[in-house]
Amino acid sequence: MKNTLQQEFTKLYHKEADATYFSPGRVNLIGEHIDYNGGLVMPCAITFGTYLLISPNEDGVFRFRSLNFTDQGDIPVQQRYEKTGDEWFNFPIGIIDHFGKDGHQLKGLDMLFYGDIPIGSGLSSSASIEVVTAYTLNDIFNCGYSKLDLVKLSKSVENNFIGVNSGIMDQFAVAFGEKNKALMLNCDTLDYQAVDSNLGEHVLAIINTNKPRKLAESKYNERVQECQEALKALQRELKINYLCDINADTFKKYQHLITNPVVLNRAKHVVEENDRVKLAAVALAANNLQEFGRLMYASHDSLRDLYEVSGAELDAVAEYSKTNPNVAGARMTGAGFGGCAIALVKADAFDNYSAEITEYYTQKIGYAPSVYSSLIGNGVGLLNLLVN
User: Fold this and answer.
1) Which residues are catalytic?
2) Fewest CB atoms less than 10 Å from the CB: which of 37, 71, 299, 340?
């Protein structure tokens, strides 16, 4: 891959790139819709992501090229930048703008981006582009940011420059990911624990439902409001700041305070899912993939029945996976209403699994999913220093 990209860079710029950087995509293994409730998530970096080849120029211009998109940008070096339209290079421009606002003097660069993350799949292609750009600029111009600084900077760009109200999990996972480790992350404090996650004879199957996620944003905001309503009800008798400040046993004692049955279901999912993340960390550290798989299925069932963010497409993946003896567990991942599901599949059975779930899904839904195989990979870095 690196040699192929170098050839493409030479074709475009008539010189070799000085360096190649890589930032992965991510999946959330378990812990869904609890990041805004003060709980724990468990993302990991995956082994495909965004490559950035780069070389300085003397022209005072940032040149943006991509092998994924036809549109390209040539932007003069200046102090301030604004978002223009929906072009992909708004993401790196936003990062450059943030560096400038922090007082860093950047110089012209020739850049080539290439990503093998499926666009719009919910695997964090945008966070991957942001973090690889931020890491690269910090490295080349010796700006002195820590990795955590780069995560916060990238999230700020996503929220304020791009205008997407996302949390910090995506940028954190693609920056801090470690090979064969999941990150048990508290999204409120940013404290995290790297949990040993050797998949052994299994691989991570990523199943893109290929369903557009039109409902996701409005329903997401609705769920946030329902959780806030549940929290206010519990706060009448409990001194808590978040739903995830209590466990399932405490919730049972006080759930009578929540009189709306729909809101009760939402809160029940959140509290129990947070407990599942803690159990999942224990199972993974003990290399007990069967128990981890059981927790994955339980998570999916809760997201389907209590939180109601699944759908026929994601449910079809979980339904089929339960019937396949080579699958340890499966669940939807991400906001829901489309996007991706994940499954732990025996490596030597992956090709059969891919063919069979494609047939099952196509018959049930009417069009095919896209199925990928990944391991748990490293976070952002200079490519020749990364060993995936």
Assistant:
1) 170
2) 71
Let me know how many helices (H) and strands (E) the chain has, helices first: 11, 12
Do residues 125 and 50 touch, judged by C-beta distance below 8 A?
Answer: yes
Q: Which tokens go with 322?
A: 């339960």
Domain with 248, as residue range(s), is 202-374
pLDDT at 386: 45
* C-alpha torsion angle, residues 152, 166, 137, 22 (rounded to 10): 120
DSSP E strands: which ranges in the chain? 19-30, 40-56, 61-66, 73-76, 109-115, 181-186, 192-196, 202-208, 327-333, 340-346, 370-374, 381-382
Write out the DSSP string of 333-354: ESS-SSSEEEEEEEGGGHHHHH
Numbered residues of the known binding site: 32-35, 66, 120-126, 158, 220
Q: Which residues are annotated as part of the binding site for ATP?
A: 66, 120-126
Annotated binding site for Mg(2+): 126, 158
- Domain match, 149 and 261 both: no
252-293 pLDDT tens trace:
999 999 999 999 999 999 999 999 999 999 999 999 999 999
Instruction: Look at residues 30, 24, 25, 23 and name the one whose alpha carbon lies nearest to residue 334.
Output: 30
pTM of the complete model beyond 0.85? yes
Q: Report the C-alpha gap between 299 and 273 in whole angstroms.
A: 7
The Cα–Cα gap between 48 and 65 comes to 19
Instruction: Provide the domain count of the chain.
Output: 2
Do 305 and 226 share a structural domain? yes
Q: What is the DSSP string of 160-197?
A: III-----SHHHHHHHH-BTTEEEEEETTT--EEEEE-
Residue type at 164 in one-letter notation? V
